[in-house]
């Protein structure tokens, strides 16, 4: 991960949008401990929208509900991340700053539809979600506003931020190759594209192409290999499938463990969680594309809502989430990698060894998403 602290822009320009005062709690901003985590993404844990209300020190939060006007001392987050993981972190922010956070949890699609429907009346200040492809979509739909922050520019490498400042990465996840060590030698593995080789006929397991994670991976391959070559690879993958595509990464990893297939592609944190539960889980991780473009890395991240009435408060929360202390907890709670360079990874992640990351700017995943979806459809990848 490359960090360019030196490239930070000189000013701290934030769009001013009906915000009253930032001075008071600007002072309250501090780097603190926290604890974050990851995605409900399976949707399962994102049932009905949930509101979290932490007690606030001495101010009238005007209310008791989500559908109220934000004051400077309240930041409302629409989040698709696992609430159990994210809430302790946000509570920590409230504890440190006195700023109340209202958390509304749902899947990304419904949250974006809600933002669209609420328009100028939305109580939301931040959209917190996974995958650059989702953040890019939100930006395309005009749901986010640009911010410029020397803190984010210093803490988050440029390749993990939107060039226009519409969203920023806050944690990293690698999407890489996993294999059954009783049947496969790591020396047989190399790239994502190589899994299209007939050598893997009947041995490959994949998650559905409907998931944004695979759309982003394929978008990155299109950028590196070109459209034609990538299509050949996708057709090869489909030819090599051992069974129908899986709805989620965990089922896919369990299928490798069960001997249903020998290799597959999944996000690193799912593997980390499985290892937490079952230290002897009989599947190994392999860092893909180490001799070529590097392993595909994606983000979880956030953007300030276009119609937020507290964009300064929103930005402060995002800046805080990118701080050293927040990053350590943010990442380790969910087996993700910190987005900020120099922040220690958890012991488990360190045990997987260092790896070369793809250097692509993650916004490409959004730009090429439609083409990736069309191509996978054409190639018969369900
Ligand atoms: Fe996920």
Q: Give the amount of beta strand, in percent.
A: 5-15%
SS elements, strand count? 10
Regions with pLDDT < 50 over 5+ consecutive residues?
Answer: 1-70
Largest sheet: 10 strands, mixed
Summarize the structure.
By secondary structure, this protein is α/β, with parallel strands linked by helices. The chain is built from 14 helices and 10 strands. The chain is globular.
Protein architecture, described:
The protein has 382 residues and is of the alpha/beta class. It has two domains: 2-172 and 299-345, Periplasmic binding protein-like II (D-Maltodextrin-Binding Protein, domain 2, 3-Layer(aba) Sandwich), CATH 3.40.190; 173-296 and 366-378, D-Maltodextrin-Binding Protein, domain 2 (3-Layer(aba) Sandwich). It has 14 helices and ten strands. The chain has helices at 23-26, 83-97, 108-118, 132-140, 150-155, 212-225, 227-240, 249-257, 268-277, 311-321, 324-333, 347-351, 363-367, 369-378, and strands spanning 74-79, 100-105, 126-130, 144-145, 168-179, 204-205, 263-267, 284-286, 296-305, 337-338. Strands 1, 2, 3, 4, 5, 6, 7, 8, 9 and 10 form a ten-stranded mixed β-sheet that branches. Helix 6 packs across helix 7 (227-240) and helix 6 crosses helix 14 (369-378). It is globular. Residues 1-70 have low confidence and may be disordered. The structure holds fe (iii) ion (FE).
């Amino acid at each position: 991960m490359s960090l360019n602290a030196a490239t930070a822009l000189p000013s701290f320009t934030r769009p001013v949008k009906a915000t009253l005062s930032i001075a008071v709690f600007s002072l309250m901003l501090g780097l603190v401990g926290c604890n974050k985590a990851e995605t409900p993404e399976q949707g399962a844990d994102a049932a009905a929208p949930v509101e979290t209300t932490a007690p606030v020190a001495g101010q009238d939060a005007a209310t008791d509900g989500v559908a109220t006007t934000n004051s400077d001392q309240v930041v409302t987050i629409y989040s698709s991340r696992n609430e159990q993981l994210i809430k302790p972190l946000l509570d920590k922010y409230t504890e440190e700053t006195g700023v109340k956070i209202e958390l509304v949890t749902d899947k990304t699609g419904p949250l974006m539809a809600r933002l669209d429907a609420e328009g100028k009346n939305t109580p939301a200040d931040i959209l917190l979600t996974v995958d650059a492809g989702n953040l890019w979509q939100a930006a395309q739909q005009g749901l986010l506003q640009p911010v410029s922050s020397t803190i984010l520019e210093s803490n988050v490498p440029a390749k993990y931020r939107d060039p226009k400042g519409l969203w920023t990465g806050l944690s990293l996840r690698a999407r890489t190759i996993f294999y059954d060590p009783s049947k496969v030698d790591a020396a047989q593995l190399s790239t994502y594209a190589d899994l299209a080789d007939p050598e893997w006929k009947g041995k490959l397991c994949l998650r559905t192409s409907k998931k944004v994670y695979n759309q982003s991976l394929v978008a990155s391959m299109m950028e590196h290999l070109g459209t034609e070559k990538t299509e050949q690879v996708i057709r090869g993958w489909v030819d090599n499938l051992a069974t129908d595509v899986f709805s989620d990464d965990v089922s896919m990893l369990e299928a490798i463990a069960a001997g249903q297939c020998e290799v597959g592609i999944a996000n690193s944190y799912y593997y980390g969680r499985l290892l937490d539960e079952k230290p002897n889980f009989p599947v190994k991780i392999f860092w893909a594309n180490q001799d070529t473009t590097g392993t595909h890395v994606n983000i979880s991240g956030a953007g300030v809502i276009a119609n937020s009435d507290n964009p300064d408060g929103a930005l402060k929360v995002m800046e805080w989430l990118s701080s050293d202390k927040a990053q350590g907890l943010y990442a380790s709670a969910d087996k993700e990698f910190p987005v900020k360079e120099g922040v220690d990874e958890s012991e488990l992640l360190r045990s997987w060894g260092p790896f070369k990351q793809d250097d692509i700017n993650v916004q490409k995943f959004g730009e090429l998403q439609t083409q990736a979806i069309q191509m996978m459809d054409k190639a018969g990848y369900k």
